[in-house]
Amino acid sequence: MTAQWIDSWSPVEGRERAEKVYRDCFNAEPAGVGSAPGRANLIGEHTDYNDGLVFPFALLHRTFIALTAREDTIIRLVSAQEDAVWEVDLDEVAPGAHTGWGAYVAGVAWALREQGYAVRGFDAAVTSCVPYGAGLSSSAALEASAAVALDEVFGLGLAGTVDEPNDEGRKVLVQACIRAENEIAGANTGGMDQSASLRAQAGHLLLLDCQTQDVQQVPFALSDVGLALLIIDTRAPHQLVDGQYAQRRATCEAAAVALGVPSLRAIADAGRSADEIAAQLTAPGALPSDQNPEVAVRRVRHVLGDIERVRRVVTLLDEGRTEEVGPLLTEAHVSLRDDYEVSCPELDVAVDAANAAGALGGRMIGGGFGGSAIALVRLDEAQKVADAVAAAFADKGFTAPGFMVAEAGAPAF
Ligand code: GLA
Predict the structure, then answer these.
(1) Which residue of 26, 88, 149, 376 has the fewest CB atoms within a 10 Å radius of its CB?
(2) How do residues 380-407 score in pLDDT, each as one tens digit?
């Protein structure tokens, strides 16, 4: 069974594609083109909304948006991947009022205006090579591409240049993207994806402290040490994602209240013993009646474990012990599968088949219930491992997966 590889477009190709979609729809040249990458995450999952640590990087796969400012407040959006024009008046954009992909773009304009920036209406055309629904943050790529394009055409001065990104300004754009996703698109996600898309640097992992928003750029050059990171898009349809994600988040927040801290990060930093935490969470009345204490104990164990695993991976990379990262990925997968319960058969098969074929370790990434997995492999075994995963999927009767060899790409610009 031969693996299918998912190609990315060069920045020039993506720009030209977006310009063409714009021209075909609006019969004019766009004033500017923005683009932004999807992301993968090496380690630290479901930790962002617990003020924890995450360690993502930008993909080479990007979303492109060609855009022209209008004098009025009308927003007209067209996409190479969608049929209809999506239209809204910016003055009428409001939480809970919109559905569909356009909400992610209009939401960014709305959030920037809420934050006091002078943004009006615009015409825009979108196209993307970030696989949709693959857990690689196509939505954050869409938001971030809109954010940098709006920054450019309305002269907001927040993004800086490709060579000299303005990280303080980008933090403002990250917040606008998060508000667009949380308040306008209605997905209460945690912020890792938007930070990765706007603040990661090419060739680097982004170590993000979600409590302070501080970042460290950590060199990510696996091929120098004979390794590669395989990204496996399982193509498993996300099921019940929204409700399940919101439930996990609610349990973490209830657990933090029961433990008397603002977020689970404080527990991670305090280094309290697992037994002590479990005793406190299972004490009668500690949690609201809609939370199962035994389940909450496992959810908390995952979050604390993954924050610790981020720290261990950072140390291993720093000490040049990259191969030892592999087993920590698998440990994280087991924790996501058994304690956090966000895996699915396709993700488990992807990780198990990769490991059986010689991967050093692997895990599901992103929110879960479908989407993508990663596997750390020897460089010269990437094809072999990918073929083995593809064969395992065929055996199970699953849809054929798609593969990429991860390379840390550039942020939005
Ligand atoms: C999704 C969310 C992120 C993060 C991950 C899980 O990708 O968008 O904010 O919570 O799930 O780590």
Answers:
(1) 26
(2) 999 999 999 999 999 999 999 999 999 9
